[in-house]
């Protein structure tokens, strides 16, 4: 009898140990071991840039670290696919829904549906515009207008004391997307008080390297003519991938980005920081994709019924030609 009692005690101890091991994902084992896994539905907008793929990977890695079950859908840049994914998360009765809205408008109906099912929603990376209040619990991401202001402020400093007009080409992100809207607004706020600065062309490259190259080639063909006195002094690109594409288009016709044309971009992914080291880029405003862990903390709070902040903004910086190349971070994306 004694042996059986000892054996059953040992089995109980081992089974508890196995529960801890199964749930030991770096989070609070006690909290994980005794709760059902939280299920997060994430509708990613696409894979348009290296920034975006880094953002997706960061969300996936964070879900594993926090022991959160992740249903992940990639909408390939289509709003209707994101809406379909959110509806499937509602049908699956996930605990929390998160998504990066590809554009700012058109979300009311599906978010009202999520609200009526009491499923909290987190906006990740990008914002929405709506007449309705209370369609989402929190926004987690960057201050795009501030990013635009930082780009413009650096440009004003760069041309301090320089007389004559400054012709600027703007490569916009996806039209209707909050980062494109905010960066354009912030940049104009920073430069509009100085009459020297003129945006002579503004076209969308959809945050994509290929479209940045095509759009810049088109602008160079239509506008750029040193013989006739039409030059481009500055390119302000809403993201690095479009800036890199624009550099390729300029170099194809013998124009040196970073020297003949001042290059300003936003994201600070590896390709842009490398261009800064090479003197092909002059100013890179950081926009971090690394918000996965903060997202999982918000998800945990919402799943537990705790209050969350209405907005959580990332801490970001600016890298410029004036800095020490040795100080530039080594980016895995
Ligand atoms: C910004 C993000 C933008 C990046 C681009 O938070 O939404 O989308 O700046 C990406 O690289 O395509």
Give a description of the structure:
With 333 residues, the chain is an alpha/beta fold. The protein has two domains: 36-141 and 289-315, Rossmann fold, CATH 3.40.50.2300; 144-287, 3-Layer(aba) Sandwich (Rossmann fold), CATH 3.40.50.2300. It is 43% helix and 18% strand. The protein contains eleven helices and twelve strands. The protein has a six-stranded parallel beta sheet, sandwiched between helices. α3 (50-65) crosses α11 (292-303), α6 packs parallel to α7 and α8 (209-222) packs across α9. The protein binds beta-D-galactofuranose. Residues 48-49, 51-52, 125-126, 141-142, 179, 207, 239, 241, 266-267, 287 line the site of beta-D-galactofuranose (GZL).
